[in-house]
Amino acid sequence: MEGRQKLFYLPEPHTDFIFAVITEELGVIGAVVVLLLLAIYAWRGIRVVWNSPDSFGRMAALGITAMVAGQGLVNLGVVLGMVPTKGIPLPFVSYGGSSLIVMLLGTGVLLNISQQASPAGGISSRPAKGSCSAAGAGRAGRVFRGGGVGRDGVKGGEEGEPAPSSTAGGF
């Protein structure tokens, strides 16, 4: 590697200013790859937040995603001279064990939350328990069978009899 900035001009080239070294050694392509990987991590983390099955999972996923993406953005701001030097390493890249361990543990928790998440989306696609959706209105509670059509378009009648198999389950 032929980079010279890391030899005398950068205060901590292996930790805080690793993005400058990557950019000097690998050029614009290396910088774009690092930025793209950070953006993909943030995008996937936000998808986990939206698909999380409960509020604790949403808050934990949001916190982990914000921790990694925020730390990356602050490091990039320091390297570009937009923010004063803070001593925050670039996630998953900078030298140092404690930051890497915390990032890997956070990513493991985020992966666990994503495994518990529904594939179709957690917030908007599933109605809350006990609530009625447009397709299942009136079927969440008591079921009526017999003569006549109820307000949800399903034939109704006496209370207590099981629903036809086409309307069982409601959702």
How would you describe what is shown here?
This protein is mainly α. The protein is 49% helix and 2% strand. The protein has helices at 5-8, 18-51, 55-79, 97-116, and strands at 144-145, 158-159. A two-stranded antiparallel sheet has the order 1-2. Helix 3 (55-79) runs antiparallel to helix 4 (97-116). The protein is elongated, with a radius of gyration of 26 Å.
Could you give a short description of this structure?
This protein is mostly helical and 171 residues long. It has helices spanning 5-8, 18-51, 55-79, 97-116; strands at 144-145, 158-159.
Residue share in β-strands: under 5%
Please give the radius of gyration in angstroms: 26 Å
Mean pLDDT, as a whole number?
76
Count of DSSP strands: 2
What's the total helix number?
4
Overall helicity:
40-55%
**Structure class:** mainly alpha
Number of domains: 2
Looking across the biggest beta sheet, what order are the strands in? 1-2
The biggest sheet, with number of strands, parallel, antiparallel or mixed sense and barrel status, is:
2 strands, antiparallel
| H-E string | HHHHEE
Cα-to-Cα separation, first versus last residue:
60 Å
Low-confidence region ranges: 133-144, 167-171
Instruction: Name the overall outline.
Output: elongated
Task: Considering the chains and any ligands shown, give keywords for the structure.
171 residues; mainly alpha; 2 domains; 4 helices; 2 strands; 49% helix; disordered C terminus
What does the secondary structure layout of this molecule look like, with pairings?
Layout: H1 5-8, H2 18-51, H3 55-79, H4 97-116, E1 144-145, E2 158-159
Antiparallel strand pairs: 1-2
